[in-house]
Amino acid sequence: MDIRKNIFWIAPISVLAIGLLPMPYGYYNLSRLTVCVCAIYFCLKLFQKNNTVFLWVFGLLAVLYNPIMPVRLYDKEIWMVVNAITAFLFFIKRDEVR
User: Fold this and answer.
1) Which long-range contacts link 31-35 to residues 24+ away (Cβ below 8 Å)?
2) What percent of the chain shows pLDDT beyond 70?
3) d(CA 46, CA 83)
């Protein structure tokens, strides 16, 4: 198991799972940065494999989680659902980006 390749799906899932707990606002900035960077990495790998559907999905995730112009959903419960879906997407596509 090469941790350098696995970090791009383990890191976002981990920060999203920890984000379910009550955390200070700064943690969510870090989680947005982590998920955004990993989503961009997935985009690059999926582009190389010509998987255009999930290229768009992870591109939208990169925009949703971008730390520069954050998207505000104003409700933690909505974010919890979005985070769970995001973690699931990273998990199911982990083998395709190796």
Assistant:
1) 31/65, 32/65, 32/66, 32/67, 32/70, 33/67, 35/61, 35/65, 35/86
2) 98
3) 21
Residue 1 confidence class, pLDDT cut points 50, 70, 90? low
Phi-psi region of 14 (alpha: psi -120 to 50; beta: other; left: phi over 0): alpha
Place of tokens 């690059």: 44
Q: How far apart are CA 15 and CA 90, in angstroms?
A: 12
Highest mean pLDDT among 26-30, 34-38, 69-73: 34-38
The structure's pTM equals: 0.92
- pLDDT of 50-64, one tens digit each? 999 999 999 999 999
> Is 97 in contact with 9 (CB distance < 8 Å)?
yes
* The CA-based dihedral angle spanning residues 47, 53, 59, 60, taken in that order and rounded to the nearest 10 degrees: 180
